[in-house]
Amino acid sequence: MQPSFNKNKAILSLLPLLTFVAIFLGSGLYLQSQGVDYAFYQLPAPVAILPAIILAFILNKTSINQSVETFIKGVGNNNIITMCLIYLLAGAFSAVAGATGGVDAVVNAGLSIIPPSLLLPGLFLIAAVISTAMGTSMGTIGAIGPIAYAMSVKTGIDPALMAGTIVSGAMFGDNLSIISDTTIAATRTQGCEMKDKFKENLKIAIPAAIVTIALLLYLTPAAQVVETKDYDILLVLPYAFILVLAVMGFNVFVVLLSGIVFAALMGFTGSYEGASFVKDIYKGFTDMQEIFLLSMFIGGLSEFIRLNGGLDYIAQKIQAITKVIAKWHRKVADQLGIAALVMASNMCIANNTVSIIVTGPIAKKLADDGNITGKRSASLLDIFACVTQGTLPYGAQALLLGATFKISPWEVSTSSYYCFILAFSAIAVICLRRNKA
Fold it and tell me: What Pfam families does the record tag this protein with (predicted)?
C-alpha cells in the first residue's frame, strides 16, 4: 500500500524537530566537553526551539498568515492547554507543600520507621514515596541526596550504591505520580485518564520495585544506627491526600486545587502565613515556566509535522523496522516501537518530559494503528522515558547526585538498578500480556 502523504514533504516537516534536538544536544555536548556543570541544562529548551520554529515557518511554504494560524492551532490544542494548566497547579502544590515543611516531614517520617538493617531498601521506599507525592525526581533527589550522602559516610556503604538507590526511588515516583510532568504529558498526548494510566503502570512498576527491594536487601551491609529528626505528621497528610483523591478517580484539577488548599491548612497549624501562601503559589507557577512554554512551542511545531505528513511517515518507518516482530504479533511490535522511539528521543534530549512531548503524537499514531489502548501507550511512554533518564550519565539526576556524593555520574547511572529492572519488567508485560494492551 502506498503512503497517503508526500514523502519528501513529510521528511522536510521533520527537519525543524531534528534541528531542535541537534541544537539542544549539541550545546550540551559542547558545554560538557568544556567542563561546565549541568551542561545539558545551560541552554533553556524554549530558547533552543526558536530556530526550529522559524525553520518550520520557512519550510511550510504558505503565506505567513497561514503559517501563524497553523502554529497557533497547535499551541491552542486542547491537550496542550490542559497539560499546561495542570503543570501550573502541580507546581503550586509542590511549592506550597514544600514551603510548609512537608518534604522534610516525609523524609524524617520514613527514616524514623526504617530499621538500620533495611537501610538501602528503606531509602528506596522513602525516595519512591516522596517522588510519588511530589511528582519530581529532581526535587526528591535534592531533598534526600545530602541525607543519603551523610548516611553513606557514616555507615561505610558504597556511595555509588547509595546514590543509585536514591535515583531508583526517585524515578519510581517520577514515573507513577499523578502530578509528575511526565505523567501529565503522557496521559494528555495519549488521551487517557490519569487514574487508568496509574493502574496500568502499577502492574509493571510494582513487580520491578519488589525485585529491586530484594536486591537492595541483599546488598545492605551490617546494621548501622541512623539519626533522625522530629517531624509533624500533619505535614505528611497533604501528599497522602492527593494520592487518595487521584486513585479514587477525582478530576485532576479538583485533586490539585484541593491539595493546595489542604497543604496550606496543615501549614497554618504551624508558622506558615497567608502572605507566604500566595507567594508560594506564584513561585510554583514560575517553577513550571520552562516546561509550560516548551509544551506550547512543541504543540505548534507538531501541528506543522502533522499537517505535512511527518507523523504518518515516522509511524510507517517504525512499523517497517518492527515488521519482523509484527509477523509474530502486531501489538508487541508497535509497543516496542513506542518504547524505542521515546528512549532514542530521551538519549538525544536528556529530559524525559521533553522526550514524551516530542514523541507523544507519533506514539499516539502507532497506538491507534496497532489498536493499543491509550493507558498502555501512555504507560510505556512514561516508563521508557524514565528508564532512560534514570540511566543517563549526562542526565540531571546522575549529575546532581554525582556532585553530591563526589563520584562520577557514570557510577550513579550504572547503579540505578530499578531503572534496568523496570525496563525488563515492561518488556515482559509487553510480550506476556500482548493481547491485553
Answer: Na_H_antiporter
Flag whether 332 is in a domain: yes
Helix intervals (H) in 34-77: 45-48, 50-60, 64-75
Exposure class string for 377-412: b at 16+ Cβ within 10 A, else e: bbbbbbbbbbbbbbbbebbbbbbbbbebbebebebb
- What whole-number distance in Å separates Cα of residue 164 and Cα of residue 124? 9
Give me the pLDDT at residue 369, please: 80
Does 159 score more than 80 pLDDT?
A: yes
Mean per-residue pLDDT over the chain, rounded:
83
Q: How many domains does the chain have?
A: 1
* Domain assignment of residue 373, yes or no: yes
- Say if 65 falls within a structural domain: yes
Write out the residue range of the structural domain in which residue 108 sits. Answer: 7-436
Give the ranges where 220-308 is alpha helix by DSSP (H).
237-247, 252-268, 274-287, 289-307
Q: For residue 149, tell me if it sits in a domain.
A: yes
Q: What is the C-alpha separation between 409 and 395, in angstroms, rounded?
A: 9
